[in-house]
Amino acid sequence: MAGEIIHVGDASLEGDAIKSDMTVILHFWAEWSGPCKTLAPLLEDIAPEYAGKVTIAKINVDDNQATPAQFGARSIPTLILFKNGAAAAQKAGAMSKSQLKAFLDSHL
Question: Which of UniProt's keywords are assigned here (predicted)?
Fold first, then answer.
């Protein structure tokens, strides 16, 4: 489905996201986080625009604690961009839609 956001966990992250042929943006989030609640609709809004170029994946840090530790995601929201199976860029904190798009565009 175009513009779909996938949900991953510690066990499925590598197969679903990291080993993807596409660029992947991984959103570290938690239900209780206000900044995460602000960023989530922005990701949903841009997902159709970046369909076919970027896979957007979300991982709940409360339910999946190994992955944030593995990638050094110490605050939420954190976005890590993966290219060719490796972390290529990272951005933490709330951001506007234009900042989010600029972050993605600068790494595509």
Answer: Disulfide bond, Electron transport, Redox-active center, Transport
End-to-end CA distance of the chain: 21
Given CA atoms 101, 106, 107, 108 in this order, what sign does their dihedral have? Answer: positive
Tokens 């593995």 appear where? 70
Q: How many CB atoms lie within 10 A of CB 106?
A: 9
Structure tokens at 89: 């860029």
Phi, psi of 41 (to 5 degrees): -65, -25
> What separation in angstroms does the CA of 49 have from each of 7, 12, 29, 54?
19, 25, 22, 9
* SS (HEC) of the chain: CCCCEEECCCCCHHHHHHCCCCEEEEEEECCCCHHHHHHHHHHHHHHHHHCCCEEEEEEECCCCCHHHHHHCCCCCCEEEEEECCEEEEEEECCCCHHHHHHHHHCCC
What pLDDT does residue 104 have? 94
Q: pTM for this structure?
A: 0.91
